[in-house]
Amino acid sequence: MSGAAPVLIGAGIGLVAGIGLALVAVGNPWLRRRDLAARVDPYLRRDRGSALLEHGASASGARTFVRTLLGPVAQRMLGLLERLTGGSEQLEKRLRMAGRTSGIEAFRVEQVLWGIAGLVIGLVLAFLAVGARGASPLLGLLIVLLGGVIGIVGRDHLLQRTVARRAARLAREFPTVADLLALAVAAGESPVAAMERVARSSRGALPEEFGRTVAEIRAGSSVSHALVQLGNRTPLEALARFGEGVSIAIERGTPLAEVLRAQAQDAREASKRDLMELAGRREILMMVPVVFFVLPLVIVFAIFPGLAVLDIAL
Predict the structure, then answer these.
(1) Which Pfam family, giving just one, matches this sequence (predicted)?
(2) With CB atoms counted within 10 Å of each terminal CB, which end of the chain scores lower, N or C?
């Protein structure tokens, strides 16, 4: 055991030195080819701020430093990440559904950072397993690789959880927002003005989406196309049906207030059905403590007096 510790320490130092030299070689600007897009990219302005959209939060200095340091390594791992977590089109759709304004490259860099963190944690666990427990070095290598894969897949799973939480939040907000739109339209406002009023006077995920829709319409997009895009970038199917229904009502001249009230009623009915399904699933889970904890106690309390009487009789 004492002879294996210096070998492990030397192997760790060599691994860290090798990774450092590889990062220096990859990040050398004289050895790295840069195209015209990479040279012009730092000077482009990406601010999409408007009266309806809030300015995005600036990245912290530490996060920018890590991205700059590990950027070349992240670019070489994009192919592996796409094979593990899906293609670019599917990822872009999920990022839109999660409400993120950052691009695919930023999310891939986050996945690389999570993977590196998993590798570091796996390396520490491998050293503990091999040095302290005397496990096989092959098992240690497997732990390191497993830590990296768990880090990458874990970031993707966190994105999926974000999409699910945002869908639930939109489902809670949709009936109320649809009623507000119906009241504004019934008062004589146009659909665009009604969506703008809701976006300005309300707070939440759905008013923000309406704000983006109004911004697209103000920028020159048609109302029907903007409403279809609203349904495409949100994970809620009711919003997709809402966009289609409103666009058809505008094109055919159907009373829009009635359509919006019907959409709100359908959303409430769908919410009730979801609650009933959730209650049905929770009812099965509630049987676990009843069967394994409450029922044995009831049996003990029912049988114990009889056993006590038998003991006294004997």
Answers:
(1) T2SSF
(2) C
Of 56, 158, 71, 157, nearest to 113 by C-alpha is: 71
Distance of alpha carbon 313 from the chain centroid: 67
Smallest CA-to-CA distance from 215 within 183, 198, 192 is with 192
Please give the Cα distance from 295 to 223 (Å, whole number). 61
> Any idea which residue has 């004289």 for tokens?
30
Q: What is the pLDDT of residues 96-137, one digit of tens each?
A: 777 777 777 778 778 888 888 888 898 888 888 877 777 777
At 52, is the secondary structure helix, strand, or coil?
Answer: coil
CA pair distance 195, 99, nearest whole angstrom:
18
Judge contact between 224 and 231, C-beta under 8 A: no
User: pLDDT tens-digit profile of 7-39?
Assistant: 677 777 888 888 878 777 766 666 666 667 766
pLDDT in the model for residue 48:
46
φ, ψ for residue 219, nearest 5 deg: -80, -5
Name the token pair of 223. 């109302």
